[in-house]
């Protein structure tokens, strides 16, 4: 792994928040909550049902914030390896709604790297943003990288 | 105590759970596939682990157990996810999850609810994941500025 110093940035390739990506999460949510080995269809929700979203005062379906949170987590694991899922922290705040076909990129900006007995503790700011840089999800994260 | 009916009834001090379950490979793979966590650590066969983000769905399990009549009249808005994970959670682990409504407050005409959730290894009590979840109830009048769940 490349040694990342403070102010280093890691940016994921852009992804479009398609209606299918929104629905996948709705279905996975229902599947995970049932936890009985059978896939489920979730909804109707504001993430997968146009009429339901309109009835809730939205202009259309919007993405569940956990989709962008997981895209950020994926970038953390791409960057630091599976260790990032073993000890760490992730805080994300949803600052703007994400509509169908919005194109987003996830980004990490390293803010601190501290050597400890157990490895390097790396802190970072995290973002998921539109291609013009408008943030939709912001926060911070921390991972412990033992093989640094 | 405001459990027993709708999620929108929850009040500060309400305790949710405990619930116990075994983390299954099926659930981990389905969840990770849906959010494109395409890493063998989650999707593979060599002792896959649950992603720390899966704790968010434990909130829904706790809601389901404590509030059997569902969300209430309007959709909820998820505002903030804040999880700290202390150890990996391999598939097959028996976990116990408890939650508590720690805050309910009004801000700019909206009702915010904070739930703190702790996942431990069942039997040993070893801490696995701590999660703080913030939602807005009933966002119907104005959806600008937040995502939703």
Automatic annotation (TrEMBL), chain A:
<dbReference type="InterPro" id="IPR029069">
    <property type="entry name" value="HotDog_dom_sf"/>
</dbReference>
<protein>
    <recommendedName>
        <fullName>MaoC-like domain-containing protein</fullName>
    </recommendedName>
</protein>
<dbReference type="InterPro" id="IPR002539">
    <property type="entry name" value="MaoC-like_dom"/>
</dbReference>
<dbReference type="Pfam" id="PF01575">
    <property type="entry name" value="MaoC_dehydratas"/>
</dbReference>
<feature type="domain" description="MaoC-like">
    <location>
        <begin position="46"/>
        <end position="112"/>
    </location>
</feature>
TrEMBL record, chain B:
<dbReference type="InterPro" id="IPR029069">
    <property type="entry name" value="HotDog_dom_sf"/>
</dbReference>
<protein>
    <recommendedName>
        <fullName>N-terminal of MaoC-like dehydratase domain-containing protein</fullName>
    </recommendedName>
</protein>
């Amino acid at each position: 792994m490349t040694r990342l110093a403070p102010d280093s940035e890691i940016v994921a390739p852009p992804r479009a928040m398609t209606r299918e990506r929104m629905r996948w999460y709705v279905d996975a949510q229902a599947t995970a909550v049932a936890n009985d080995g059978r896939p489920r269809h979730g909804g109707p929700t504001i993430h997968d049902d146009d009429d339901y979203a309109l009835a809730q005062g939205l202009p259309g379906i919007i993405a569940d914030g956990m989709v962008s949170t997981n895209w950020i987590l994926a970038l953390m694991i791409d960057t630091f390896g599976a260790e990032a899922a073993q000890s760490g922290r992730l805080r994300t705040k949803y600052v703007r709604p994400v509509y169908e076909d919005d194109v987003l990129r996830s980004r990490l900006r390293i803010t601190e790297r501290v050597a400890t007995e157990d490895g390097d503790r790396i802190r970072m700011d995290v973002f998921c943003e539109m291609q013009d840089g408008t943030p939709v999800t912001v926060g911070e994260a921390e991972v412990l990288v033992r093989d640094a | 105590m405001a459990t027993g009916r709708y999620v929108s009834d929850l009040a500060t001090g309400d305790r949710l759970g405990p619930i116990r379950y075994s983390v299954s490979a099926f659930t981990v793979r389905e969840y990770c596939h849906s959010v494109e966590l395409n890493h063998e650590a989650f999707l593979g066969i060599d002792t896959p682990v649950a992603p720390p983000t899966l704790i968010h769905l434990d909130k829904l399990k706790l809601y389901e157990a404590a509030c059997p009549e569902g969300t209430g009249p309007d959709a909820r808005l998820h505002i903030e996810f804040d999880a700290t994970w202390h150890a990996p959670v391999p598939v097959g682990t028996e976990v116990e999850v408890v939650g508590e409504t720690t805050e309910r407050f009004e801000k700019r005409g909206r009702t915010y609810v904070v739930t703190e959730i702790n996942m431990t290894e069942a039997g040993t009590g070893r801490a696995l994941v701590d999660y703080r979840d913030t939602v807005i109830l009933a966002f119907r009048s104005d959806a600008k500025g937040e995502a939703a769940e």
